[in-house]
Each structure stands twice: as C-alpha cells, then as structure tokens.
Specification:
The complex is a heterodimer. By secondary structure, chain A is α+β, with helices and mostly antiparallel strands. Chain A has one domain: Outer Surface Protein A, domain 3, CATH 3.90.930.60. Helix content of chain A is about 40%, strand content about 30%. Chain A has 3 helices and 6 strands. In chain A, strands 5-1-6 form a 3-stranded antiparallel beta sheet. In chain A, strands 2-3-4 form a 3-stranded antiparallel beta sheet. In chain A, strand 3 and strand 4 form a beta hairpin. Chain B is of the alpha+beta class. Chain B folds into 2 domains: about 120 residues, no CATH class; about 150 residues, Rossmann fold (3-Layer(aba) Sandwich), CATH 3.40.50. The chains are: A alpha+beta, B alpha+beta. Chains A and B meet through strand 2, strand 3 and strand 4 of A and helix 5, helix 6 and helix 7 of B.
C-alpha cells in the first residue's frame, strides 16, 4: 500500500533513459522494468527523497493540465508500480516535508 | 600447438580479441584446444594469458606473484587472475581441481572486460548466424534461447547459446560467441572469429502459434536491460544502458512469439531475412 504522505527516492541501482518520448526505468539485470510517459518521467525525476507525495502532486498539477484528484490517483498508482518493481524505496514517512 | 619462450601455447580469437594462452601443462592446452575448437593462427596477439598451478587463493605466494599487476579477478577458490593496467597481460593462477573450467571462466572474464573497454557489450543472449547475418535472441530465463539453438539446422551456425559479445562497427553491430560455444561451423563460410553483422534483435516469447512483430524501441531497451548481467555493478560502470540503447537504435528489434518447432525460422527469413 502506497501511503499519501510517504517520501520516496529512486533505488540505488535504478537507471532511466528516454526513448522515443517514453522513459524506460530499469533495475539492470533484475527483470524490474517500468516504461512511462511524459508525466511519469516528470514524477520519476521528483522522486529524490525530498518530496512527499502531496508535494509531487502539486508539482504535477502545476506542470500539466490535470485535476488534482486524478493526478493523485495516477501518481499513487505509478508509485505503487515503482515500489513493486523495487525501482524506488521509501525513505521517510509523514507530511512534514510539505 | 606452438611454442613460446619454452612453453606450449595456443591462440584463440573472441570478440575480435586474440588471446594467446601459454602453460607448461600440455594436457591442459590440449583440452582447451578440443574444448574451444581452436586453430593454429599466425596473427597479432591482443592478450597473453599465462597459466600456472599455484597454491591457494590469498596465500602469500599467490599475493607476491600478483604484486606487479594492477588488477585482479577472483574466481572464488578456483583461480586468481592478475591483469596489467591495459589488460593485455594476464597471469592466471589455478588453485582448484578443475583447471579447464577455471581457465575457461577466467578467459570469459578477461574477454568481457576487454569487450567493455573497447566500447562493446556482453549480453545474456543466444546468437545464430544464418548466411552472412546474425540474429540475437533474448528473453528471461526459460524464454527459449536454448530451444532456438536446438533448432539450428543446416546453414545455421550457433555462435552463442548464452553469452554474446557485441561491438559497434560502421553504424551497425558485429557479434561473437564466447569461446567453446560455436556449433555447426561451416568451414566454407567466413570464419566466426572475424565477427558476424547483426541483422536483428529478437525478444523470445513462447506461445502456441508463431508470430513475429516489430518491437518498440523503448520496450526493446527495457527488456534487454532486464535480462541478467554477468556482473551488474561492473557492467553499469561502462554505461551499459547507453550502449544497449544505441544497439536498439541501430538494429531492428522484433518480438517473436514462437512454439517449439523450427517453423519460426521460415517466419524470420520471410519477414527479416529478405528485408534489406
């Protein structure tokens, strides 16, 4: 379960590259892969261990034409996928970073 | 087998890299020649590998022998290999009971390092030559690399069933297998040690019917990066994602749904082989 107020950072060995407008995120050799669009790529860049999810939702809503409830739903789903594939790790909890 | 400085030696070429192996253990060299199907070659040598049977891993004797070298590969308790700075001179110290296996393992590691230092990559993938072109087959464990190799027929040369060396050359890619793997070599065709141009990269998916479809480059990159690497941390140090991305940019990528029969070769020949 991905918590709204958790803070995440990219896993140490996760690497990414943009190919034809999509961002490929992978743990090399581990079978852990995610391919995402422009918004996902933007979120990926924000997963630096300094921003809780609400802050990331704010940033995405500022950068893209999207309603906040929809943005939060999609971002939580994306973060859940990244966690499942061990491409990010939680580094703190709580909304004090906001 | 030839002689060099009083020691017997043999020469093999992998990934465009010529390696001369010397040892006082003639029986080991004979077994290596048989295992690798090595030929006598009078060519410039890129790497010399001197094999000695010495003590135990980490012993004072072994450590003193490696004192003048700049790099080391530890083969668990089977061997210790010392390399000079440029990787052109290797002292292989065997400690265990399996000198052939230890020498081959060390040779693969030395080749892999040279391939990376020369800008190439080594991927867990099967590679088969058909005519003058090579096809790279990859996928997760159990995807069918061995099955594809088992269906190699007349006109096919299995360059690799597991590890394939690739180097970029003139806007395309050239590939080789690791030593001791090549099957069905055709003596009348171009020797495999010169490298074979890569025609296509093919992701394997076992299915009930055979179907070949173009694979989007992002998915090709993702799935190639997901297959196991020999030493992920080492490989990443050589910017492997950049190189794999270059590979999928340069070479057409496909997804092959195939069932366990040789029909897929017809599909490949029709859809890729004739599309030049």
């Amino acid at each position: 379960m991905t918590g709204v107020c958790e803070v995440y950072q990219r896993a140490e060995r996760a690497v990414s590259r943009v190919v034809d407008g999509e961002t490929v995120i992978v743990q090399p050799g581990q079978g852990m892969v995610s391919i995402t669009n422009e918004v996902g790529s933007y979120v990926w860049d924000l997963l630096d261990g300094n921003r809780a999810v609400p802050r990331i939702v704010d940033d995405v809503c500022d950068a893209f034409d999207v309603e906040r409830p929809r943005a939060q739903e999609d971002i939580l789903a994306f973060i859940g996928e990244l966690r499942t594939h061990q491409l990010i790790v939680p580094c703190a909890t709580g909304c004090s970073h906001d | 087998m030839a002689k060099q400085a009083g020691q017997e030696c043999l020469t093999t070429v992998v990934g465009g890299i010529s390696v001369r192996i010397t040892s006082v253990d003639t029986s080991l060299l004979v077994r290596l020649i048989e295992y690798m199907d090595a030929e006598e070659m009078d060519i410039p040598i890129d790497v010399t590998l001197r094999v000695e049977q010495v003590g135990e891993a980490g012993s004072p004797e072994v450590l003193s022998l490696g004192a003048s070298f700049s790099d080391c590969i530890e083969g668990e308790n089977e061997y210790t290999a010392y390399l000079n700075h440029s990787g052109t001179s290797v002292l292989l110290l065997l400690h265990g009971e399996y000198p052939l296996e230890a020498t081959m393992n060390c040779l693969r590691q030395v080749i892999r390092r040279r391939i990376y230092s020369e800008g190439g990559i080594v991927l867990h993938a099967a590679c088969i030559r058909q005519g003058s072109d090579a096809y790279l087959f990859y996928g997760p464990s159990g995807a069918g690399k061995s099955t594809v190799c088992s269906f190699a027929a007349a006109g096919h040369v299995v360059l690799s069933d597991d590890l394939t060396c690739l180097k970029r050359k003139a806007g395309g890619w050239v590939c080789w297998g690791m030593p001791g793997v090549v099957r069905n070599p055709n003596p009348e065709s171009t020797p495999v040690y010169t490298g074979t141009p890569l025609k296509a990269v093919i992701r394997l998916i076992q299915a009930s019917t055979t179907k070949l479809a173009p694979l989007h480059k992002s998915l090709a990159l993702a799935s190639l990066m997901a297959v196991p690497f020999e030493d992920t941390r080492f490989d990443m140090g050589f910017g492997i994602m950049e190189k794999v991305n270059r590979l999928v940019e340069d070479v057409p990528c496909y997804s092959l749904h195939f069932r366990k029969d040789p029909e897929f070769w017809d599909v490949i020949s029709q859809q890729i082989g004739q599309a030049s």
